[in-house]
User: Which sequence fits this backbone?
């Protein structure tokens, strides 16, 4: 009985330890499930934000490419305009130079015409002072008369007409020079405007190209983030599944611990019951022995009495 009682105590201790281990395992499994649920929630939130980042990056990349195309078109337009403006400026410069040469030529021609006019006028004045013989008077003296100045006057008139013509040509040349200079200024302003526009468009195009590269990198990063987030969700789901499996195992351990505890309790009850019956049996045996001894004593007494009677 002592051995049975010792074995029973060992069984009860094992059942208690099993119950404690099962409770610990259940608590750990519940903690793991709580952490896994939080991780899954966080991973799902990150996955959602990663999807939004992909959509935003895709839209930004598309808009950046469109802006790059527009910037490239504007750059090509203003480069063409700059080429046309430079061609215009070259023509304006040649026109200005030619107008300046014509003004110089007209000025020189005017100076020459004015010199010719002054010479003709001086010749006319000289001719007006000249006389020629016209005959003799009755005394035989030579009579003088002024020479015919008509040819000289005609020469003055021609010289004056030439001067007037040179003035007209100079005025026309100066007007052309003024127009040429104004045209040159407009061409220079157009070249400066187109140059600034080309510079601005080049900067815009470079920025647009950089935006395309940046948006492409952002899209790639968002896709990598999405992949990592998706992997995180999958791992979190696996962690949740493992935690639930741990809970199921812990529940099975608890059930086994409860069964073991029940078995130990039943065994303890049976042992107590057996001890009680053993005590009863021992008492019955003792009573039987006592009855047997009493009967033996009665028989020996009866035999002795019969022997004495003989």
Assistant:
């Amino acid at each position: 009985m002592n051995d049975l009682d010792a074995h029973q105590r060992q069984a009860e201790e094992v059942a208690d330890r099993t119950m404690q281990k099962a409770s610990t395992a259940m608590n750990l499994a519940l903690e793991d499930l709580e952490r896994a649920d939080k991780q899954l929630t966080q991973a799902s939130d990150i996955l959602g934000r990663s999807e939004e980042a992909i959509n935003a990056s895709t839209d930004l990349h598309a808009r950046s490419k469109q802006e790059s195309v527009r910037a490239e078109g504007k750059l090509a337009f203003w480069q063409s305009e700059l080429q046309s403006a430079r061609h215009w400026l070259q023509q304006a410069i040649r026109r200005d130079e030619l107008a300046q040469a014509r003004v110089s030529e007209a000025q020189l021609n005017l100076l020459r015409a004015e010199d010719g006019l002054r010479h003709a006028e001086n010749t006319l004045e000289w001719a007006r002072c000249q006389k020629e013989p016209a005959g003799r008077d009755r005394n035989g003296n030579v009579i003088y008369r002024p020479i015919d100045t008509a040819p000289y006057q005609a020469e003055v008139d021609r010289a004056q007409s030439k001067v007037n013509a040179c003035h007209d040509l100079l005025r026309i040349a100066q007007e052309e020079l003024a127009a040429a200079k104004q045209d040159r200024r407009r061409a220079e302003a157009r070249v400066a405007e187109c140059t600034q526009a080309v510079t601005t468009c080049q900067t815009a195009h470079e920025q647009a190209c950089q935006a395309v590269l940046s948006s492409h990198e952002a899209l790639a990063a968002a896709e990598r983030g999405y992949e990592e987030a998706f992997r995180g969700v999958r791992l979190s789901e696996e962690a949740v599944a493992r935690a639930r499996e741990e809970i199921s195992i812990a529940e099975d351990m608890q059930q086994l611990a409860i069964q073991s505890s029940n078995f130990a309790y039943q065994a303890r009850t049976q042992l107590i019951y057996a001890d009680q019956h053993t005590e009863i049996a021992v008492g019955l045996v003792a009573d039987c022995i006592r009855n047997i001894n009493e009967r033996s004593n009665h028989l020996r007494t009866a035999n002795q009495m019969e022997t004495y009677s003989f």
The chain has one domain: 2-309.
